[in-house]
Amino acid sequence: MSDIAFWGPGDDPALAGFKEALRTEWLRRGYEFVEGSDPSAACVFNFVNPDDPKPFRRRQRSTYVIAVHTVPEAPADVLRHEYPMLVRALANLSMLVVPGDACYFVTPEQGVYSVADPGDIDEWARALFDRIEPLATSRLVIDNRFDTDLEPELWDGDELTEALYRAGRRLDKLGLLPAPFPLEEIVGPDDLRWIKLVYGIGGLSYGNMSARKDDRRYWMSASGVDKSNLREIGRDILMVKDYDAEAGRMILSVPPGIDPRRASVDAIEHWMIYQEHPEVGAIVHVHAWIPGVQATEFNYPCGTAELAGAVADIIREASEPGRCVVGLKNHGLTITGPSLDDIFERIEPVIEVQVPMTA
Ligand SMILES: [Zn+2]
Fold first, then answer.
1. How many Å apart are CA 143 and CA 251, to the nearest integer?
2. How confident is the model at residue 280 (pLDDT cuts 50, 70, 90)?
């Protein structure tokens, strides 16, 4: 069973009872606690000093870190208040405890949701465990292996990479590409590098797109690129050719002599969908919303096998898996279609730029 650690200087007396209830609940569910900054911990609660939040420095990327602090009253805009805290503490999740009101969560995808204080601290700890544990134990599949075996006739792309370029222009026109949070203004370059490593994102350029090449392979936008200008093969657009389940990494075909960018963190999700549904020819993932869509139950982090599995489950159950719109809770949409053009024709009239981030 995985290990949990409590860390950090946050010793606000208002949190003492809460901390104990949390510890008791995780122990009751079979987890063990390790002391201090033990690198073997799978999940670390970092009790931060809100005036000077210090990051817990992970030794391994898989360590899930939750920044915790408390205020007597909930701020009017929880996201504005908490997102800088999340970023400065380099956490995977931020947890703002407001006794007598609720515990508010903020995610790197800018989701906000809360678990109300039922008035009984043990009951609260149970509800919080149920909300946190699926996220803390999810598994990132964001490693890449690059093989320089892309066929020479594809080094400059093909009609599918042209379609990806056009789709990126369309996303830009819909207003779905701007970086939603000025990360660089909050953190220094060292921390920014660390964030890219931890979250597996190459900057805050959310969303991704892919187009099927053949039975097994598909073209996909790379991580952290400007999606309004997808041109260079191996850098802006990558050929995903396989998934190594044992090593938990994506395998990509690139031309020789280039310094490839990483694949989008959602490559695993697209992989699962293409494998299971031969009729799917293209997939678009955006941080936007269409009212009334069916959504995943948990807001799993981007790039985890669990998010990919939850999306695949919904698509499997859909009446038309090849033309499906899936809501990713507090996050965005994944849309399948026979082609990129087909997807855009369907979503353009109904898509809303704002994702409902609460509930
Ligand atoms: Zn996303």
1. 9
2. very high
Domain span including residue 309: 143-347
Identify whether residues 125 and 243 lie together within a single domain.
no
On whether both 287 and 187 belong to a single domain, the answer is: yes
Query: Among all chains, which residue has been given the structure tokens 């082609």?
Result: 339
**Where does a domain end: 85, 107, 136?**
136
CA of 168 to the centre of ligand 1 (A): 15
343: CA distance to ligand 1 center in Å?
Answer: 17
Closest CA to 282 of 154, 163, 150: 163
Q: State the distance from the centre of ligand 1 to the C-alpha of 265, rounded, in angstroms.
A: 8
198 inside domain:
yes
**DSSP-assigned letters across all residues of 218-265:** EEEEBTT--TT----BTTTEEEEEEEETTTTEEEEE--TT--PPPBPT
Distance 263 CA to ligand 1 centre (A): 13
Alpha-helix runs per DSSP H in 143-188: 159-173, 183-186
Q: How far, in Å, from the CA of 10 to the mean position of ligand 1?
A: 31
Identify whether residues 181 and 199 lie together within a single domain. Answer: yes
Establish if 357 belongs to a structural domain. Answer: no
Span 79-87, mean pLDDT? 86
User: What's the CA-to-centroid distance between 290 and ligand 1, angstroms?
Assistant: 15
Helix (H, G, I), strand (E, B) or coil at 266: coil
Average pLDDT score, the chain: 87
pLDDT confidence of 198, banded at 50, 70, 90? low
Q: Which of 25, 16, 14 is nearest to 4 (CA)?
A: 25
Ligand 1 centroid distance, CA of 123 (Å): 32
Query: Is the domain of 284 the same as that of 231?
Result: yes
- Claim: this prediction has a pTM higher than 0.85: no
| Pair (33, 94) in one structural domain | yes
Per the structure, the count of domains in the chain is 2
